[in-house]
Amino acid sequence: MKEKRIGILGAMPEEINGVVSLLKDKKEIVKGMRTYYTGTINNIEVVVVFSRWGKVASATTVTHLIIEFGITEVVFTGVAGAISQDLNIGDIVIANSLVQHDLDARPIMKRFEIPLLGITELFSPKEILDSTIEKIDELVGNGSLIDLLSSKQRELFSLTSQKVVVGQVASGDQFFSSNIEKENLLAILPDVLCVEMEGAAVAQVCFEYDIPYVIIRTISDVANENSVVDFNEFVSQVASKFGFEIIQKLIKW
Ligand code: ADE
After folding, report:
1. Is the pLDDT of residue 1 over 70?
2. Å from CA of 80 to ligand 1 middle
3. Which of 2, 69, 75, 165 is buried most deeply by CB count within 10 Å?
4. How many Å lie between the centroid of ligand 1 and the Cα of residue 174?
5. 253 inside domain
6. Known catalytic residue: 102?
7. pLDDT given at position 31
8. Residue 66 resides in a domain
9. Closest ligand 1 atom to the C-alpha of 227?
10. How far is the CA of 153 from the centre of ligand 1 (A)?
11. Phi/psi-derived region of residue 41, left when phi > 0, alpha when psi is between -120 and 50, beta in every other case
12. How many structural domains is the chain composed of?
């Protein structure tokens, strides 16, 4: 059997810095404008990298992880903008389904259909999904994430409680910053919980290479007119701490 080696991705330095600090026997390999950090976490081999923003950047990075580093599974952690009204800043979304909201080859294919795959959404494999849900539920349930924040930070983000929601995540090369953009998205994808710019691209590559994957997103903003301010504050103050804690919990035998 192939030895377990987990690829851990985020889209920005802030999303992986905490994770990099967990690495034992850390080495750096620079290729294609990315720095890949190899090492171990809890005695499990990992490769950590930030992909840069967007579908192309994340698809090429995860392909590199698979081909050059022989990773056997993928965990993506990062932030997202809430689309569902039920989500608040700080909530965690685990994607069981991923769709590329900007993929539209009509009238040749159905809206969102991935050419040649003939499907419009990708489903995270059950085993990795279930074990991730169980561990993140535990982490959030015992308050480990919220406890990392100062009272000032909790106040800033109105973060008094935190929940884990499992559902559909939409990815595309677009930063959402208005209610009208949200409404337009909900009109075409009514079940979407949140938006980001990488998950569905990573999912497509992993599906094509038969690599188990899971996408975990913390809500940094509610994708409205205030999203740029909330996003920047959340990324600089919280993303790295949450990334550290989430990965430390997940990467265990
Ligand atoms: N990632 C975090 N917030 C986002 C937003 N508002 N739109 C797209 N991607 C995001």
Report:
1. no
2. 5
3. 75
4. 8
5. no
6. no
7. 98
8. yes
9. 6
10. 20
11. beta
12. 1
Predicted confidence at residue 208, as pLDDT, reads 98
pLDDT recorded at residue 252: 85
How confident is the model at residue 93, as a pLDDT?
98
Domain membership flag for residue 251: no
Q: How far apart are CA 103 and CA 229, in angstroms?
A: 28
DSSP string, 195-206: EESSHHHHHHHH
- Note whether residue 252 is domain-resident: no
Measured between alpha carbons, how far is residue 23 from residues 11, 125, 244 in Å?
A: 18, 26, 11
- Give the model confidence (pLDDT) of 11-53 as tens digits: 999 999 999 999 999 999 999 999 999 999 999 999 999 999 9
DSSP E strands: which ranges in the chain? Answer: 5-10, 24-31, 34-41, 44-50, 73-82, 92-100, 122-123, 164-171, 192-196, 213-221
Q: List helix spans (H) across 112-163.
A: 126-141, 151-156
- Is the pLDDT assigned to residue 172 strictly greater than 70? yes
pLDDT of 105 over the 70 cut = yes
- Closest residue to atom 8 of ligand 1, CA basis: 175
Nearest CA owner, ligand 1 atom 2: 80
What is the residue type of 35? Answer: T
**Given ligand 1 and candidates 175, 186, 215, 224, which is best to mutate, with the most ligand atoms within 8 Å of its CB?**
175
Q: Which domain holds residue 227?
A: 5-246
Ligand 1 mean position to 165 CA, how many Å? Answer: 17
Q: What is the CATH number of the domain that holds 189?
A: 3.40.50.1580
